[in-house]
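Supplementary Note 3. Input sequence used for the single-chain structure prediction.
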Amino acid sequence: MNAATIDRRRVRSPFSLEDWLVEPELNRISNRETSIHLEPKAMEVLLCLAESAGVVVPRQILVDRVWATEFITDSTLTHAVADLRRALADDARAPRYIETIPKRGYRMVAEVVADGSPDPAGDQPSLRRQPLAVVVGTSVRLGSRDLLELGDHFLFLGDHEIPLLGRMLVFGRDQEADIQILVPEASRNHARLEIEPDEVTIEDLGSKNGTLVNDERIEGRCRLSSGDTIGIGPTKMVYRCLTSDPTRTQEGDCTR
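The predicted structure, written as discrete structure tokens, is reproduced below.
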């Protein structure tokens, strides 16, 4: 499978899902044989899965994004996914589109292709609008950065290497976060990492569960050294700088 990331700020334009054309603004999917209108919430679930194609999206993340502050029962999401499967003629036992990951969530397994044309507002597709990476537990899907040069700063999560491109990067569950971490323990805008010529710092953005550096919760800004571990919920990433020695953070660099 070669899944493409769908940018949610452009996703209102039509996009292809295998042999289906998805038209979010019309709440409609169609192919050569039929045209089907979806309930708005079902379409929102489809968009959430499409924007993270290939990655398991936890149930709680889907509920949080689609229903926000609404109180819903656990079966509401299940029914929405069932409606999508009926519309797509998908089989839960042998899925072509939406795979159920028991006790975790759902994953879009079909190929997703974004419409390359500009949206009605004239906004052109932009690689920079895609997250650098989407992280769920130890699973990582890197965004496309073919037109950008790699720098000296990286995060490592298991065997995955995430290049840190740009000067200021936001971690969190928000769809526009640079490092999108899809776990319930992460806040929408959880932490911010800044890369300056003479230092790299990370700052907690008032998250509910806090940001850890080397297993200690920080307050305010914390200076990072190559080899330091960043913890956001169950997600732990090691920061590395190719031009720095892997020295540990000096005492007093962080407020804890």
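The longest strand covers residues 235-241. Residues 74-88 form the longest helix (15 residues).
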